[in-house]
């Protein structure tokens, strides 16, 4: 009898393990039936925004590994997801919703965002869980973009973010991705920190912040770009100026793009760094558009037409192009590129409004995910891009 009970228990455990593997695969298959049926941009925008708001409070967990079998082992080891990954997922959704609120006085959305903020910050405006990695700076930046709240109420958290970034500055005066890797500079870091540094520096008159953001971008242009093509490597080694990882990693282009364009947007028109970054925007826009595919996407390796399309790359570069179109010299080139990117992203959107086929989280320098699925980061930038179209007519320079 005891043996039978043990055998039954083992069978139940095996069945649960198998279900943990099979259920997500089955859900993806079902969700992709009739994918890409959106034709109307306003309807698409409404759908992706509604789901984005839902995800902000219950953000899908992003896997650290690419394992699709025996996933329960990753869960038990704590390797299924990490908080640093979640920071930039949530930040993107928050950025998308902040852009939505610029054009929509939606009390329900504001209420949900206040609930979200109460889960991240205490009554004094400090982080409930103090971040240790620079990934959190993009979440602090997203907080600063919420016009319906009083940003100064969260000054403690913003100050802590600036202090944390300073702890990551290496001997070359630029910011490392991690404290224990101060000899490397990652392209991701530009997207994580530069918009925050400029926004915080301008708002609170901390020139050092703005200087650091521009230095981070210009250093990468000098050390981390492919000569003749102006696309970034994944990283570079500071002391030897050696590029690391892949030139043309799609989301790497995206991280550079959003760090650059948002930093440029945050600068006042009369700021001395405005024309400096504007030249960088023009140069990168001209370079990146050369790798856009005919159907409007960028691939996960942008230099290879045979690679899979990546929605996260397409959404971030679409956002970049849309805002770069404010510059007269490249306006037509960029708006055409942004429109093509939008049309592609509509074609890879599930019935429930989830934008599909984004590359999973990167494992290490040169070690890239081969899973392509939903990604809150992509969702947020699609929302941000679609809700900013109308505003561009007002702010065009």
UniProtKB/TrEMBL annotation:
Keywords: Hydrolase, Membrane, Transmembrane, Transmembrane helix. The keyword Ligase does not apply. SUPFAM superfamilies: Six-hairpin glycosidases (SSF48208). Gene3D superfamilies: 1.50.10.10. The chain crosses the membrane at residues 6-25. GO terms for molecular function: hydrolase activity. The keyword Signal does not apply. It comes from the Bacteria. Pfam families: Glyco_hydro_88. PANTHER family: UNSATURATED RHAMNOGALACTURONAN HYDROLASE (EUROFUNG). This is Glycoside hydrolase family 88 protein. It comes from Paenibacillus alginolyticus.
């Amino acid at each position: 009898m005891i043996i039978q009970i043990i055998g039954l228990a083992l069978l139940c455990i095996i069945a649960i393990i198998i279900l943990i593997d099979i259920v997500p695969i089955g859900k993806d298959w079902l969700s992709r039936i009739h994918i890409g049926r959106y034709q109307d941009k306003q309807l698409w925008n409404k759908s992706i925004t509604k789901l984005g708001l839902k995800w902000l409070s219950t953000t899908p967990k992003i896997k650290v590994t690419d394992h699709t079998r025996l996933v329960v082992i990753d869960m038990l080891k704590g390797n299924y997801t990490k908080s640093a990954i979640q920071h930039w997922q949530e930040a993107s959704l928050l950025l998308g919703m902040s852009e939505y609120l610029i054009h929509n006085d939606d009390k329900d959305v504001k209420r949900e965002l206040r609930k979200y903020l109460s889960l991240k910050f205490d009554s004094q405006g400090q982080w409930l869980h103090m971040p240790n990695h620079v990934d959190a700076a993009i979440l602090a930046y997203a907080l600063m973009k919420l016009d319906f709240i009083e940003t100064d109420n969260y000054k403690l958290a913003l100050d802590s973010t600036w202090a944390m970034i300073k702890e990551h500055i290496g001997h070359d005066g630029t910011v490392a991705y991690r404290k224990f890797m101060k000899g490397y500079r990652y392209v991701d870091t530009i997207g994580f920190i530069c918009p925050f540094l400029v926004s915080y520096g301008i708002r609170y008159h901390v020139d050092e912040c703005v200087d650091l953001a521009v230095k981070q971008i210009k250093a990468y242009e000098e050390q981390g770009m492919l000569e003749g093509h102006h696309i970034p490597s994944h990283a570079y080694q500071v002391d030897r100026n050696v590029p690391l990882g892949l030139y043309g990693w799609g989301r790497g282009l995206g991280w550079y793009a959003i760090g650059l364009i948002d930093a440029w947007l945050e600068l006042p028109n009369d700021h001395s760094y405005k024309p400096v970054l504007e030249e960088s925007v023009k140069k990168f826009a001209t370079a990146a558009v050369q790798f856009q595919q005919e159907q409007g996407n960028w691939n996960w390796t942008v230099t290879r037409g045979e690679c899979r399309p990546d929605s996260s790359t397409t959404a971030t570069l679409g956002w970049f192009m849309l805002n770069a179109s404010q510059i007269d010299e490249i306006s037509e080139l960029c708006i055409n590129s942004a429109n093509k990117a939008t049309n592609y992203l509509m074609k890879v959107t599930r019935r429930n409004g989830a934008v599909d086929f984004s590359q999973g989280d990167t494992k290490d320098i040169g070690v890239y995910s081969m899973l392509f699925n939903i990604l809150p980061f992509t969702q947020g930038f699609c929302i941000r891009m679609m809700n900013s179209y109308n505003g561009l007519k007002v702010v065009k320079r």
